[in-house]
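cron nightly-structures :: item 1 of 1
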Amino acid sequence: MDAAPRGLFRQLPLPIFAVSAFIRAIRGSRPQKHRHTRFVRLLVPPFCVGFHGAGKTANIAGMTAAPYPLFLHLERQHVLVVGGGQVGLRKTLGLLKCQAIVTVISETFAGKFPEHPNLRCVAESYTSMRMAANGSSPWRIVFAATSDAHTNRRVYEDARGLNILCCRCDNPEEGDFSGGAVWQSPGITLAVSSQGASPILAVRMRDAMRSQVDPLLTEFAELLAQWRQTVRKSIAAPAVRKALLTRLASEEMEGVLRRRGRAAAQQLFNQWVAETLPGSPEAADFGAGSPYEVGGGPANPHG
């Protein structure tokens, strides 16, 4: 892995960029019937955006307001993209990775839009009726991604009239939110924004940061996502649950994974859960196998 140009971070003044990077353990909002289905949902990446104030840059006492960074979970949510060029294609591909249900409206489609069960391409010009034409499933968010500023402005105004958040891809500061330079791998999402100063700079920073991500953290994040689901089901007390989740994400557990591997980390997880539930019926499900000593692998049960 190439070394990152660390000087890039030392020389940049902090106010011109905002960075959001988080290792996520996505929580299901609905009970799942099959364990496999639940695990697949853990791997659905969020959509990364920064929200702007009232569709324009705010200014308080001479200070420009920074956007608020969020990671949106758009699985099974309806999203409208107006524009079938390269910009609309990039937005569509990113949304499909999030398992959103995407409708693209454009007179022509310059990009190669894929065949996908969650994608519908409508070859017609945009009209205001389209904004309210989704029946009982209103658009969660909207992207105005045409090459015509007048059309993009119209899309934004239509969305705002229905209280739907809209990104103006041609002029992000005039919309409700904007994207950033994003890198994703299973379990980790890294998003960088220059707050409109320079998308090229944001890409440079993203590439520099991704070279610093330890590949082990990807595996660690996947394990934490699975463990979080188990802990939430097994431990009812919020304080106890929080303490265990904090311990699981610690350098102690990361060290076990790094030195001993996935099986040893799983064994230590089972041990910690069993210790957290002493005397309960659930503890028996986690207590099987040899006790684990963090310093040297499986302990000698005979002392």
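cron nightly-structures :: done
The first strand starts at residue 18 and ends at 23.
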